[in-house]
Design brief:
With 190 residues, the protein is an alpha+beta fold. It has two helices and 13 strands, in the order H-E-E-H-E-E-E-E-E-E-E-E-E-E-E. The chain has one domain: minor pseudopilin epsh domain (minor pseudopilin epsh fold), CATH 3.55.40. It starts with 10 loop residues before the first helix and ends in a 6-residue tail after the last strand.
Length: 190
Amino acid sequence: MNRTEQSGFTLLELMITVIVLGIVVATAIPAFGDMFERQRLNGAARDMYGFLLHARNEAIKKSTDIHVTITQNEAGEWFVGMTDKATACTPTLTAAAAGDASCTLNEDIAGTAILTLARMTHDNYPGVILPGGAESTLTFTFTSQGIVNDSEGAPNPITLPTLTTERSGLEKELTVTVIGRVCFACAEES
């Protein structure tokens, strides 16, 4: 009798392949979770960096003081606001829900004053918190020369609350130097 050769995989070979693939996928999934968490933290830090640069640029452009306020509630939720009004604003969810327009900038377009909402919240960055577990508020001002003053009006560097991921504790810290330079944990400058 003449036997013809058949090619293919046995059931045992297929089962071993599926098991190996399952092990590889199971080890890769946690790495994806960490990657997404790092990206949310980096995104929050980059947006906060851009927000602070915008505040400084507005102060210089308009030749007026821009007040920046960072608030945190007991749940670790955080809010950032800026205004060109005489006093600092209150960037919270309850203030936003109540129609509080204190965190605004006056934009003068063709002679018409338009209020621009100037607020950033934790809602865009799930899992990114300001640790501490207590309500806190940090207020500082960019002057018309771009220099930063603390809440007492003295030129001092400002270290912002550290952005932290809830699950793994990764951290990013932003600093504003006396001369108004915004950077990630930068050295002191005068």
